[in-house]
Every structure is written in C-alpha cells, then in structure tokens.
From TrEMBL:
The lineage of its organism: Eukaryota, Metazoa, Ecdysozoa, Arthropoda, Hexapoda. This is Synaptic vesicle glycoprotein 2C-like isoform X3. Keywords: Membrane, Transmembrane, Transmembrane helix, Transport. SUPFAM superfamilies: MFS general substrate transporter (SSF103473). It comes from the Eukaryota. Gene3D superfamilies: MFS general substrate transporter like domains. Belongs to the major facilitator superfamily. One of its GO terms (cellular component) is membrane. Residues 9-476 form the Major facilitator superfamily (MFS) profile domain.
Length: 481
C-alpha cells in the first residue's frame, strides 16, 4: 500500500553510504600498515596482529549488535555502532604507542560490526518483489568505498609534513585516519532522522508506531498529505515479551535460533561466512603490502631474471625485528594507490550485473560463480611472477569474493523471518570475523617464509563455500508466529 518510491531510494542511499563508510573504515588499515610500520616498529607479525585486532572487535560486536537489533531496534543498533566506530578511529589517529593503536582498532571493529544490521533494516522497508534487487545494490556502495579509499590515501599519504611536540608525533597517516573516521560519524547522525524498521515494530507489537512509520513512508512516496488509509493493526497471536537482562536475552535469542527449525540454515550460513570471509580478509587487507613488495623487488632487481613464484619474491622483503630500525621503509610506491583504484573499478561490472539480473538468475547462481571464480584466482596467485599479474588476479579476487560475501547477507535476510533475522545475520557475520581474525594471523605468521599456506587456505575455503551454497533451501522459511 505504501508502494516503492522516493523514501525507499533515500533509505537505500543512506544505508549504501554507510556501507561505503564501513568499507573505508575496515580497509583503511591496509594503508596504515606500510605507512606506520616505522613509527611503531612493526614486523609482519605485528601487522597481522593489528589487522587481527579489528577482526576481534568485529567478531565480538557482530554477536552483540545482532541481539540489540532484534531487541532494541535496527536503527538503534546502527546509530550507536557507527558512533563507536567513528569515535575510536578518531582516537587511533593520535595513538603514539602500538598497544593503544591495537585497542583503538579493536573498538573500531566492535563498532563497525554493527553494519551487518543494514541488510535487515533496508530489507524490512522493501516488499518481496524488490527486496533482492535493493539488497544487491549494497555491493555497489562497498565498491565505491574501495575506490574512494586509495584516492584519499593517494592524496594524503605522500605528504611529508611531520608535527612533533615532545612525545606526540603527527604524520600523514594520522591525518588519513581522521578522514577515514568522519563518514561513520556523519551518517550516524543522518540515520537519526529516519524511522525504525516497520517490520521490527510490528514484530514487537508496537502497532501505533508501525502505523506512524508507514504514514511517513506513504507521505514521502506520494508527496501528499492525504492520510494513510490504515488506522489500526490487529494481531491477536502476539505475546508480550518479558523484560530480561541483557545476557539472559542474548543467550535465549542464540539458543532459540539454533534449536528452532532454522538451525540447519543457520549452521550452513555460519560455515559459509567463516570460509568466505577468512579468504577475503586474508588476502584483501594485504594487497597494498604485497604490491609494495613486488614493486620493491622489480625496482631493486631490475635486469635480473624473474623469481619462480610470488612466495620467492615476497620472502626477500622480510625484515627481522633486530634490523627494523636500519631497514625500515614506510614509503608506499605511488603505483600501489593506482593499482588499488584499478581493483576498485574492476568491481563495478560485478556490482552492476548482480542486481540487474538477480531476479532472473537467482542469488545461488551468482554465489556459485563468485565463490568458485575467486577460489581459482586465489590459487593462481602462487604462480605469478610480476606486479601486473598480481594486479589482474587481485582485481578478479576482490570483485568476486566481496560480491559473494554481500550476497550471503542478502540470502540470509531472505531465509530468516523478522524475529530471527537480526541475530541470524549477525551470528553469520560473527563466524566470518572469527575466520578473518585467524586468516590475518595466518598471513602475518606465514607470509615471509611459507606464503603457500595462506594461498592454499584461501582457495580451499572459497571452493567449500561454493559447494555449500547449493545445500541451502531455495525459498525463504516463513515465520511460525
């Protein structure tokens, strides 16, 4: 009755822009790693721990924000999670010691993990006919973030200013971190002007508030003051929920999901999220580092024969802790920024094709293509011997794997009813962040000596994800309420 109109596209724009902010916040660390390594005397293991701190925060936060979104509201969870992300990113910009930087990235990850609620919030405003298409457009906004980030880094990171005052040091990477924090804070305030999800309000028995939300949507879509024709909602089977403590409610929501008829779907989606997110973050956050190593090798060894594999090349860059003061180099070659921009633009075709054809071909078709294709590209990384090959494979991997992860959130919104949706999506994200944490630690430990290990893990996990997709039911499960 409220139709599809201006307000829905505005909500899509706000949710999408927030997803862009999330992409900037999460992946900004990939440029901070090589730029701040001398300030914090970071080895590869330290860099892996810094990436891992973000994932630890996201792991713990996903679980909590999912419960908050199902108990207090989608909009409530989104606003506070983005405020936490932006605030701690700002604080990390003035960090002077490594442990403080770790804590700030951990809390930023805790906040940004609430962004998974975006899929539930957006999907619950849109009717079934348009829901998949709207949700799939979110991947385009992630791609925009991936493009904007290296452009910002390219403008800011090469600046050579150095502000020192006693113990305090402020350089270009600090300014870059401040800029990366602003989108989350700005969009959190814009979200305050939007209503709560009408389906959430309905599921909680808040019928008057549901009517007010639908009136708001109807007024925007029709650009008229004509009253919304529905004046009351009757749902006699609704049972008022008892007030519970936070931990009790969190426990009961989790147990309720995994003891319900949705438990099989929940387990499969968690496994897929774990495997695919492990592979994605294992490689994506290390792309600037790997490109920097390739360019360092090709510059230093000009005229020499190419090494046999990528692993031989990256191992030459190894810096021992005792040598870091003498061998540390925090300059990022300008072509690295250009390469990341190219990777971002390479994601645009996938981001356009999926929402345009998802209703015809189905989410499962695109999930299979994305996971199998990115798995093959990850395997091919082992045999490359040049920065150009690395760039092409990185572009294929980024475009397919990121699209696959986004589609997993879309399919979770379709498979779970309102009362379980927030928790189901967020628990899947929680398992994904566990994998992302383990993946970054694996890369940090093995990249210098045994880089074959992360490549094999990434490839295998993506293939497993592609196979498991076809075990999910083909249609959503309706609520028992």
């Amino acid at each position: 009755m409220v139709g599809i109109g201006k307000i829905h596209y505005y909500i899509l724009f706000i949710c999408g822009s927030l997803f862009t902010a999330v992409a900037i916040s999460v992946t900004s660390v990939s440029f901070i790693l090589p730029s701040a390594q001398c300030d914090f005397q970071m080895t590869s293991v330290h860099k892996g721990l810094l990436n891992g701190a973000t994932m630890i925060g996201m792991f713990s936060g996903s679980f909590i924000w999912g419960y908050i979104s199902d108990s207090r509201g989608r909009r409530y969870a989104l606003i506070f999670s983005m405020l936490i992300d932006g605030s701690f990113n700002l604080l990390s910009s003035v960090s002077q010691i490594y442990p403080v930087l770790i804590i700030c990235r951990l809390m930023s990850g805790f906040g940004v993990s609430g962004a998974t609620v975006l899929y539930s919030y957006l999907g619950e405003f849109v009717n079934t006919k348009y829901r998949e298409k709207f949700l799939c457009w979110m991947e385009m906004f992630w791609t925009i973030g991936i493009i904007i980030l290296p452009c910002l880094a390219w403008l800011v990171m090469p600046q050579t200013f150095r502000i020192e005052y006693g113990f305090f040091l402020f350089r270009s990477w600090n300014l870059f971190t401040i800029i990366s924090a602003l989108p989350s804070l700005i969009l959190a305030f814009l979200l305050m002007k939007l209503p709560e999800s009408p389906k959430f309000l309905l599921a909680k028995g808040k019928y008057n508030e549901t009517i007010e939300c639908l009136k708001f949507v109807h007024r925007w879509n029709n650009n008229t003051d004509v009253k919304f024709p529905v004046t009351s909602i009757v749902a006699p089977d609704y049972v008022q929920e008892l007030n519970k403590g936070f931990l009790v409610g969190l426990y009961e929501s989790t147990i309720g999901l995994f003891t319900s008829k949705f438990k099989y779907v929940a387990i499969i989606t968690c496994i897929i999220q774990f495997c695919s997110t492990t592979s994605y973050y294992m490689l994506m956050l290390w792309f600037p580092e790997l490109m920097n190593r390739f360019l360092w090798y090709e510059t230093l060894y000009t005229g020499f024969p190419n090494m046999t594999t990528m692993c031989d090349i990256v191992s030459l860059y190894k810096v021992e802790p005792d040598d870091i003061d003498g061998k540390c180099n925090d300059d990022i070659d300008e072509s690295v920024y250009m390469n990341i921009v190219i990777i971002g633009f390479a994601c645009i075709p996938t981001s356009l094709i999926v929402p345009l054809f998802v209703n015809k071909l189905g989410i499962r078709f695109f999930l299979g293509v994305c996971f199998f294709g990115s798995g093959v590209s990850a395997a091919c990384l082992y045999v490359i011997t040049s920065s150009h090959s690395n760039l092409m494979l990185s572009a294929v991997f980024e475009s397919l794997s990121s699209a696959g992860i986004s589609l997993m959130y879309c399919i979770a919104v379709e498979l779970f009813p309102t009362e379980y949706r927030g928790m189901a999506v967020s628990i899947g994200s929680t398992f994904g962040k566990i994998g992302a944490l383990l993946g970054n630690v694996v890369v940090g430990v093995f990249i210098d000596e045994y880089c074959t290990v992360p490549i094999v893990v990434a490839c295998s996990f993506l293939i497993i994800s592609g196979l498991l997709v076809y075990t999910l039911p083909k249609t959503g499960i309706t609520s028992t309420k």
